[in-house]
Amino acid sequence: MGALAGLKVLDCTHVIAGAYCSLLLADLGADVVKIEPPAGETTRGHPGAAFRAFDFVNRNKRAIALDLTTEAGAAVVRKLAETADVFVENYRPGSLDRMGLGYAALKAVNPRIVYASVSGFGLDGPYRDRGGFDLIAQAMSGIMSFTGEQGSEAPVAAGVPLSDLNAGVFAALGVLAALRHRDATGEGQHVETSLLESALAYTVWETGLYLTTGEVAKRQGTRHRLAAPYEALKTADGHMVVGVNNQRLWVRFCEALGEPALASEAGFERPNLRVRNRDALQARLEAILGGDTTAGWTAKLEAKGVPAGPLNTIAQAWDDPQVKARGLLAEVEGRRFVRTPIKLHETPVALSRGPAEVGEHTREVLAEAGFGEAEIEALIASGAAASERKMEVSG
């Protein structure tokens, strides 16, 4: 049984950020009910698609279909909220208020509810009403200005939607804190975060540098701003990464290379000098590393206790023996999904169901909430609700 077993969560989200928040809660044991339009959420893709982004942030949830633009559909959500612990949404600020589903409306029917809002820019400020996506947040947070190769002017985004995913993590953390407060006081509350703030919160080094010295971070490629060598380096058969961030590791690194004298060589003997002379250092190191493969050097560095690793593709990463040993992939209903990477040894994270189809659990969830069979059928007949719309996935 998961740590959050017994917790009821209403997931009124779309795309990634909000859905990732509720996914984390589901993986920790909460009963999460996904609410989406009768036509299905846009990230479900088209019928027959081999890959649907929707599936990987919406497994472990039940699904109901409601037309929230109708009063009858919105009324169903308010009824469900009466016994819910958490409500998660990522509509533009004000959208759910106009449907009678904002925090004030749900608090009126359930003062204990924890209401989590994830938006592009937050619930106040001059950008409140703007739409926001991960790419916009990466650009406006400054992240894209210091991501990419040194000296390049080409904008480069992170390879994953970090603003979306970070916002989901922060929202889930806020929900757990609010639940702890509710346990102590009986009061629910409104929790909110945004893509822009979530991106900015991760600029720890770059913001610290700016606030302390006024220096604006520039692109460094894979290099660390304060340590060298801490970067990707060429080997005989590709690249590897090394993390030499102190003098003790530098000495061990040079020993592993078979070049112990390099540790005290002029220009490289102190951390600040290695950072200052990093171009010359890189050339020197790559001349040495070209004498063996990535696997060979990784083994030698590991033997000396120097952090290092290969530059994997996503396929190589999932084939890594350490990743396999940790059981990060789980199979459910004949498909593989990524587990939430948290090990709770007494209340383990579990994947109990795959992604539900549109409205797969509409009748079940509404019946649990006290709706009679005739009421449920009337809602479906009117279009305010929908049930069991199958969208086939090939491949």
State the CATH architecture of the largest domain: 3-Layer(aba) Sandwich
Which fold name corresponds to the CATH topology of the largest domain?
Answer: Rossmann fold
Strands of the biggest beta sheet: in what spatial order?
6-5-4-1-2-3-12
Number of domains: 2
Structural class: alpha/beta
Any idea of the CATH class of the largest domain? Alpha Beta
Q: Compute the gyration radius: what is it?
A: 25 Å
Proportion of beta-strand residues: 5-15%
Name the helicity range: 25-40%
What's the total number of strands? 12
Secondary structure topology:
Elements: E1 8-12, H1 17-27, E2 31-36, H2 55-58, E3 62-66, H3 71-81, E4 86-89, H4 95-98, H5 103-109, E5 114-119, H6 134-140, H7 162-185, E6 189-194, H8 195-201, H9 204-213, E7 230-235, E8 238-243, H10 247-256, H11 271-276, H12 278-289, H13 294-303, E9 308-310, H14 314-318, H15 321-326, E10 329-332, E11 335-338, H16 362-368, H17 373-382, E12 385-386
